Amino acid sequence: MRNILFLLTIFLVFQNCKKNPDIGAESGVYQVDPAFEPYVQEFIAEGAKRGKTIDFTDSGLIVEFSDGSVGGASGFCYVGEHHVVIDKSEWTALSENVRGFLLFHELGHCELDRGHTNLKFNNNVWKSIMRGGELEGFEIWIPIPYFGFRKEYLIDELFNENTPAPTWANQTFAYNEVPEANKESIKVEENISRINQRFSDLTDDYEFEIDFSLINDRANRTKLIWGSTNNHYYIEFFPETGFNVSGYFIGVHQDSRDNGLFYSKNTININGEEVNKITVRREGGFEKVFLNEQFIFHIDEQAAPIQTVRMESTKTDGAIDTAFEIQRFEAKKLN
Ligand SMILES: [Zn+2]
Q: Which of 64, 112, 139, 333 falls between 20 and 30 A from 317, CA-CA?
């Protein structure tokens, strides 16, 4: 349940971003808690790179922790003031990357006078880190991929709403892009209930392919991770009636946190079938995820060599479900 609660935390981050001004920064007062200073400096630097001079000497700036709860939000900005308040317990629960994005979002309101914008690209990825406010239904679960090669565009867009769509917005890759002759099988396992593979010398590009049946117990969570224990990518399924969210997330695990980068509620309806095949391929500088041989999402190549590939289905009490059926796991090097 911890991950569910955490997801709720990060995706409710902006529900209460804007409050009516009742206490504002006194003109010219700069009072930023040391915890937030690096992010404010990064905001100034990113603005400067884009020809925007961010100067708080005239307006002042207050960025502080709230004394208590800020109405279920992680942070908010007093509209028309240069005053950001962040909930301390939520801040503690956020990874470095999400902290930066929370501060940039709030400074987007407070310093750039931006409101919320909830537009998405074709693949259901938010166009702006200023998404927030009124979100309908499952949309609240869709994370912002403020990570890796997508960050530059998202910061461009923060400072300039008219930034053209990035190349990754409509990028797609073919399942058959790598000829079979260029693949060398290095590991096969069949008819198992979990994958727990270690790799020590896999520095080449690779492909992991897994054929499986999503568990019938719809409360289970089924998760594949690849990378290292403390720093990896993941894909996690919450079948249709599980908890209060269904679908799957693709994300990155850093700073002991899972950060969703992509969410889809469709665990069935991929080529007309329930998800039964995952292909993870590192090629061309990306890690590409295919489900049922259909391209879904790509992420930056991981910096460190892959050490572990794990997949298991977990019951509500946290126990690994041995009834999970993995028909086949195969690891290949790509030449
Ligand atoms: Zn907001």
A: 139
